[in-house]
Structures are given as structure tokens and as C-alpha cells.
Amino acid sequence: IPSEESVRSVRQLPLEIDPPSHADYRAIVEPFFQRPKSAEMIAQVEALTAEMLRTAFAQAETEIVHGFALPLQSRALTCLLNVPESEADLWIGWGTHVFRKNDGLSKSSGLDEYIEDKFAATAAQPGADFFSALHAATFQGRPLTHQEKLGYANIAFAGGRDTIIHTVACALGHLAANPEALAYLREDPKRITHASEEIFRFFMPLTHIGRVCPVMTSVHGEQVPAGGRVSLGWASANRDESVFPQADEFKIDRKPNPHLSFGFGEHLCLGAPHARLILRTLLQKCVELVGSLEIVSAVERTEIEHSYERKLGYESLVLRLRPRS
Fold first, then answer.
1. What is each CA distance from 81 to 34, 92, 292, 294, in whole angstroms?
2. What structural domains does the chain harbor?
């Protein structure tokens, strides 16, 4: 798979660090990424989600990808990073993909400028936010370098942006196309946990992830030079029939469900608790507040990588949401 050097210039931390240093880099930010388990943040995301659903009820129809999922993702991220919710307005303006290039220019330039400004402000007046925590952090006894701080901040925005937007849109699209699913969850809201994991497995927010080969090797007969990039196919693993019976079917009550949507092992996604909180809260609030969802229009998104092509959620999804009576 191609390098991302054309759209970013920093190493994303701790994702792109090997053990044993990886554990020390991960420990620096792990407390922030465990915040979605706190009562305070759970309440914030619940209130935010309920507010956005009620706004949708007041509209004749709602465009979900840009008009619901993107604002929900951005506003929830302010809760995670402990910054003012008003900052989400700027992030929403970046669109759904901060790394997608247009006319040869990287859209990530706006993100880069924002991050630089935040670190400059933090140096002058530290607070209790994510950027201040990085400013004060040390790695093996020394302060973080500026490049290291940029690497953490970069993935905090990029890693959980289009993935969460995709998951929220697919979840609402599925409920709209399958009214019995919402009724099933309403019968017993405890089913939401298993349902959310099946949404992550089936709709797969990240189809693959790149890894660098340290030595020349062969992968399925293809020669890969030292320093060459290969793809780990999470989407393929999530449809493995030897692990998931009827793997190509969505089973709302599937268990066990050892999907790899968040990776595994030492590099397990730091943002998994955040993503799970957003999706489970969305399903919970749909159970409590939504009477019906109706698809008005849908434009599928297609992921293309060389000769590889796969349907991946929506470019646009317009729904009509109505409250419970």
C-alpha cells in the first residue's frame, strides 16, 4: 500500500512505534483515552446524542453523514480531549476526511495549523486538556519532543474521525433499513452491547492498516523489500468463516464476536472505549427516543485501492427520523 508521506509528515504515536518503546509511549496518553469510561464523560455524550436526535426530529429530513455523524463525532471529541465544545465548529468545517487530497493539496494543512496553535497556547497557559497533558509529559525521563507531541495529536484527530463518522452512519442506515432491529433492542436494551460489536464487525470502520516490513520478505508470493509497506486486512479477518459462522450476514445477537475492528495485542486501538461509548449511546438513545427511521436517499461510498474495490458505507445518507409517541 502507498505511503502517507504526501498527506502527513509526522510519525503517529504510539501506533507507529514497535515494542518495547511502544508501551512507554502508550502509557503517556492512556489516561485520556480511558476517560470515556468515566461517569462525567458518559453523561456528556448521552446529553449530546439526545440533543442531536431531537434536532433531527424537528427537521423534515436529515443528511446523516455530514449533518449528524460528523457533528456528533466532532462534539464528542471535545469531551474526550477536554477542550471547549465550541472548537468542534472548526473541526466540522474540515469535512469528513482531513487527509483526503484535493487538487494536489492536503486537507490536513488546516489540522496541522490548529495543532501548532494549540501547543503554542498551551505553552503560554497550560490547562487540563489533552494538549496540556502532552506539554507536561515525559518519555523515559525527558520531555516529549515537538515532533512527538505532533504525532500524538495527529492521530487523536485522524484515527477517530472518518471511522466514527462511518460507524454512526452505517448504524443509523441499518436501523432505518431494518425496523425490526430497533424493536429487538427496545425489547431488551441489554442487547445493545452485542449489537454494537456486530456493527463494528460487519461495517468495519477501518478495512486495513499499513505496516512496514523491517526486512525483505515474501507475502503470499509477493516480494516485499525492506522498508516496504504491507496491509493487514482487518475487514477480511472480520469475515473469516472459520471464526464467524455466516460471516457475511449481520447477526444482531452474535456472540462470541472476536472481531478485529480495533486491532489486537499491544497495538489495540486506544480510541476503542471512545468509539464504543459513542455507538452504544447512539443505540441507547435511539431505543429511548426514536419512533421510526426512514431512508429518503442513499449514495454508497466506494473504497478504491489499485485494483481493489469495496463498498464502504455512505457518501450521503438522508433519513427521516420521527420521535416515539
1. 11, 16, 33, 34
2. 34-97+161-203+271-323 (1.10.630.10)
